Amino acid sequence: xxxxxxxxxxxxxxxxxxxxxxxxxxxxxxxxxxxxxxxxxxxxxxxxxxxxxxxxxxxxxxxxxxxxxxxxxxxxxxxxxxxxxxxxxxxxxxxxxxxxxxxxxxxxxxxxxxxxxxxxxxxxxxxxxxxxxxxxxxxxxxxxxxxxxxxxxxxxxxxxxxxxxxxxxxxxxxxxxxxxxxxxxxxxxxxxxxxxxxxxxxxxxxxxxxxxxxxxxxxxxxxxxxxxxxxxxxxxxxxxxxxxxxxxxxxxxxxxxxxxxxxxxxxxxxxxxxxxxxxxxxxxxxxxxxxxxxxxxxxxxxxxxxxxxxxxxxxxxxxxxxxxxxxxxxxxxxxxxxxxxxxxxxxxxxxxxxxxxxxxxxxxxxxxxxxxxxxxxxxxxxxxxxxxxx
Length: 390
Fold this sequence. Notes:
alpha+beta; Beta-Lactamase; Phosphatase 2c, domain 1; 2 domains; five-stranded antiparallel beta sheet; 16 strands
């Protein structure tokens, strides 16, 4: 036979067991979704029903600024003024903490009668489960956002690749080729080849300061300006000055994304190359039996300073000559503190056997890759190779 105090202990034990079961059921419901708004709404509903409260809400915080559901049931008009640490009759609260222990918000219930010890424990347990569920929901949202960004970058990469020459013009007595690899999904290097009505070939190799999507946007803008002026058949020096001024006028942000550019116009009939180097790496012209020619810069990068003028340089192209223009991603490759550099690139170019432009590009890329000791490519790499047959 149960004594009175044994009966009371049994009732108390059953109540505790019921509360634990309720918390387990609440945990199951809270973790049954990975949508943040559904997690928040479900926690409030559970708190109100299990604690027989009038209403519940989450205290306003930086974390809950974008949440759609932050109240449930009947809450006071001034609920949004509730602050952590406030002691108001009819309120009870429990803190939701992040994985790092930072306070996300407080779960607050509105009830005329104060919570008992077990009810307060239930509220604390519910807040703990809510914090875990909120963390899972936030991670899920971040994963969805990263996936969206990844898809956008993949689309941008495909578009940028489509802006490269899709077919290299075939010139009698010449072999042309190019290669472009980015260190991120999109990059700031730009290369273009445009046949002109008089049979000459307009080409450019350019490098926007910086990397990534911002530089890619500037590269697309530069492409539009270059193509418009190439169609208008401006002299190269004037084209460089006009592009420089237009870029500079786009404002401070554009000026921070200045462009180094190597503009070329090839005459395959008279075997003459006209070039303007605007703050770019020197272009190389290597011919059998002759000293290598380096086409150096005749002015600062485009868009860096206003009202600049540039000078064009004209070179004859002997039989068997190689012309190689590139961006600094090929030379600024390091092995320890030693840089691949322009001298090593020129020596590699001079030491190559007779080959096609594709062979030259493959050999240069192989030499750079073998020299590099880094785990991954650290800058965009672009090059244009022109060979005149012997």
